[in-house]
Design brief:
Blueprint lengths: L16 E6 L15 H12 L1 E4 L2 E4 L10 E6 L5 H10 L3 E6 L4 H13 L3 E5 L16 H4 L10 E3 L6 H10 L2 E3 L1 H7 L1 H9 L6 E6 L21 H12 L3 E7 L10 H16 L4
Helix pairs in contact: 1-9, 2-3, 6-7, 7-8, 8-9
């Protein structure tokens, strides 16, 4: 298995951030299959497109701003290992950057990390609210399944544009803050970003479903929805949030089987790099 090109620490103990692949889509109901292939494909594409060899040395196409952090690639784990691995991450103050897999991995990660961190501010980038409550423990019920371990008043969903009625009812019931792509068009990216930053608490977890981005920019996802965020707005929001102290992040629902020229895998690699370079030093 190739390491992601942003990994620069062979030793887990000396790292601040830890990249972890979770190649599992067992709780997805999507018609498109193949998100289990995403962790290795994103790593591979990062090395093909984000790193360059010159005179026998490797040089990264790094983000324009920000400082390099110590990053270790832990490799891949199974869903059944999430609790033990992420509890260890929390205990040692490591920040996991997880690559799915389907979105249901977020449930296990957040519920595990909250045992040590307490309730977290959840920033949920997605085309879908994933707030089904009539059925649980699958990729469409994530928000409901972590409800007891997040602070609703300091959480937000970004990119939502295709909720079911049940989800709309739950959003209203719990007064969950939702930012749609149309809100960004109307208010502008800076105003929306400021409103989110003012809302967040001091224990932030970011979950980034790649289908929050319009399929024109990210075609290789399991459930594409038109009228999404453009990639620049999405990553600008993400970078500004990551400047705060985050406890973890995941990038999920890349579906290489349906990608076009690996555009979505490459975008996922760049997203990870922007978070790694944007985050503040502890």
């Amino acid at each position: 298995m190739e390491r992601i090109c942003w990994a620069n620490a062979d030793n887990f103990e000396e790292s601040e951030f830890v990249v972890i692949g979770i190649p599992d889509e067992s709780q997805s109901h999507a018609l498109r299959k193949g998100t289990e292939d995403a962790p290795d494909r994103i790593r591979q594409i990062s090395n093909l497109r984000d790193s360059f060899e010159r005179n026998g040395k490797i040089s990264l196409g790094r983000p324009f701003q920000g400082s390099e952090k110590k990053v270790h690639d832990f490799g891949n784990i199974g869903r059944e290992q999430i609790e033990s691995v992420y509890d260890k991450m929390s205990a040692l103050s490591k920040v996991p950057i997880s690559i799915g897999g389907d979105h249901s991995i977020t449930r296990q990660i957040v519920n595990t990390m909250s045992k040590r961190h307490g309730k977290v501010s959840l920033v949920y980038f997605d085309a879908h609210p994933d707030f089904v409550s009539s059925t649980t423990n699958y990729y469409g019920s994530v928000t409901n399944d972590v409800l007891s371990n997040i602070e609703i008043s300091s959480s937000a969903q970004i990119g939502i544009r295709t909720p079911e009625q049940e989800e709309l009812n739950n959003i209203k019931k719990y007064t969950l803050k939702v930012i749609t792509p149309f809100d960004i068009q109307e208010q502008g990216i800076k105003q929306v970003t400021d409103s989110i930053l003012n809302r967040l608490g001091d224990k932030i977890y970011i979950s980034f479903d790649m289908d929050c981005i319009d399929p024109a920019h990210a075609p290789g996802v399991s459930v594409p929805v038109p009228m999404g965020l453009n990639s620049t707005d999405a990553v600008y929001l993400l970078k500004e949030i990551a400047k705060k102290e985050i406890i973890g992040m995941d990038v999920v629902e890349v579906c290489p089987n349906f990608d076009v020229n690996d555009r979505t895998s490459h975008l996922a690699s760049r997203i990870i790099s922007e978070v790694l370079y944007s985050s503040e030093e502890k």
